[in-house]
Design a protein that fits this description.
19% of the residues are buried. The chain is globular and about 75 Å long. The longest helix is centred in the middle third of the chain and has 24 residues, at 103-126. The chain contains six helices and nine strands; from the N terminus they run ααββββαββααβαββ. It has helices at 12-28, 32-53, 103-126, 147-154, 159-169, 195-198, and strands at residues 74-75, 81-82, 85-88, 90-91, 131-133, 142-146, 179-181, 201-203, 218-222. By secondary structure, it is an alpha+beta fold.
Length: 226
């Protein structure tokens, strides 16, 4: 959107600035997806801890440390669609006259949008480009797949096999953790654990601490297993 009035607020320059900043960041951080993953691990463990310590949450304890978390992504529900295929438009941020009122506010806005944008992009790869549709006031989650994945599922004629394939595609993205046995060694609070101390037996206990589905770009279609 442009305006002939040079003093009129125009989002184009902020979008251009965002794209330039994003491009520079990705060049300086070629392994940014790993950085996002580390961040998700931290947020997932924090979410797990909060659920365990919340007296209103039942069934999630230190003896049963499993929690499923969703990453919400705003969606443009007015995107055009034809024959069940929707032109996907996830919204990772918006520029307004208020959040671009001055240079400092603009930098903060771009930073916040970048975090959501990079999280969404990384999560697409972690979750097979599958996202879950949830409407306000409803508990049911409907799997939404790319048009290409829908075509692959449609090619499976057996209903049970098709449902199994869908379940596999939409399975949670699980971050694993393990119990570490340090033996009888004593530790001081806040003291760094040495690499020698860390060499110990590990129990194969996997904790799926986060299940995150995000919006995707490109054509998508609501899938049905019928």
């Amino acid at each position: 959107m442009s305006s002939s009035n040079p003093d009129a607020w125009n989002p184009d320059k902020f979008i251009k600035n965002f794209r330039s900043t994003l491009e520079t960041y990705e060049k300086e951080h070629p392994h940014w997806r790993i950085e996002v993953l580390v961040s998700l691990i931290g947020r997932g463990l924090l979410g797990l801890k909060q659920h365990i310590e919340d007296p209103n949450k039942t069934g999630i304890t230190w003896d049963n440390p499993f929690v499923e978390l969703h990453y919400p992504v705003e969606w443009d529900w007015n995107a055009p669609q034809a024959e069940g295929i929707i032109s996907a438009r996830p919204i990772t941020g918006k520029f307004t006259p208020q959040n671009t009122a001055d240079a400092e506010t603009t930098r903060k806005t771009i930073g916040e949008i970048m975090v959501r944008h990079l999280n969404t992009l990384a999560l697409q790869g972690f979750t097979n480009h599958v996202w879950l549709e949830k409407h306000k006031g409803q508990e049911n989650l409907t799997p939404i797949l790319s048009a290409e994945l829908c075509e692959e599922l449609d090619a499976i004629k057996n209903k049970r096999e098709r449902q199994d394939a869908l379940n596999q595609l939409a399975r949670p993205f699980s971050i694993g953790a393990a119990l570490i046995d340090y033996g009888d060694k004593e530790f001081k609070n806040g003291a760094r654990v040495t690499s020698i101390s860390a060499c110990c037996s590990v129990w194969d206990t996997v904790l799926p601490v986060t299940n995150t589905h995000s919006g995707i770009s490109g054509g998508v279609r609501q899938n049905s297993s019928n």
